[in-house]
Amino acid sequence: MTGLKATWFAFDVVEKLYAMRAEAAKADGVVGAPAHVPMIRTVEQHILEQQRKFPHATGEFSWLLSGITLATKIIQAQVQRAGLLEIIGKTGDVNVQGEEVQKLDEIANKTLRDCLAYRGNVGILVSEEDHSPHVIQEAESGRYIVLFDPLDGSSNINANVSIGTIFSILQRNPGMRDGDVMAQILQPGYKQVAAGYVVYGSSTVMAYTAGNGVHMFTLDPSIGAYVLAQEYVRMPEEGKVYSINEAYCAQFDEGIQEYLKWVKEHNYSSRYIGSLVADFHRTLIRGGVFLYPGTKKAPGGKLRLLYEANPLAFVAEQAGGVATDGHERILDKQPKIMHERTPLIIGSKDEVERVLSFNRR
Ligand code: FDP
Asked: How far apart are CA 208 and CA 284, in angstroms?
């Protein structure tokens, strides 16, 4: 069975399962059971529908995205088991970022690699956890590059706090020599063809954009499918919530310190989970601003441009939000190295502009 046929077969199975559930609910006399089977839309189905709007689309892209959804379902199943001995705790290694590697980091990294390496159209895989990119020998000239943070916020795992996976997809620049791997990877964020994230929280939620709005899905664990929750998600234009690790306040620039004084005089709420992906997800839904500025110790910020800031900036902009490093639009930044870090101010349009107005004073 080809990739596409398999995908349609999977839709069919999922729809039949939903139909059976609806019938069973009706037979049990469940109040509110639908009189007819509702059209459920899985993420794969949604991607194919979106793709049909582009007459030259080949289906390759949906095949690639289904590799990501498959990987995140496997990771989610492992995250659910996070209290169990064989997968909790540190591996004893330190990653390229100088952070202690958690066993689940390693599992998530390997899962994404395994699910994407054999799609046929992914030529290069770039992970936040790895020293160097993986060029897939079997698909050396594959047209897509997938960059990912396999388990964002992983220092929170043993406290059962929401964590997530973030991904970004680039196309190979056809004008470049295939051997020039690093030049292929170091593309500015506005060149992303798709990006998104999954939050492993009280439910597992996926949001993605392929440049035509942001679409959100919830994993239905009973059938193992991401089901459409909301299309064309919009981030509220304003929101009186700020999200920052305020313990570093004395180390921030004067503009950020002034903004933090101002919010306290204007009835704001503070929310900081400490998992970027979860803090961003809340900001996308409820509005407000997330900030991880440079500090005196780390003037270039902590968050990674290619695996964290770029994909979330693409999602934010597609939902009507804004993402900047305080001086420049995140998506315009030309990366110089693979693991480059950046300050990040991301969220509702009016609130990010307010933060920037303090920078200019
Ligand atoms: P973590 O170190 O747990 O992986 O970039 C990683 C990240 O988490 C982000 O998810 C989070 O927003 C940030 O670091 C938290 O950093 P602080 O502990 O300095 O607040």
From this structure: 12
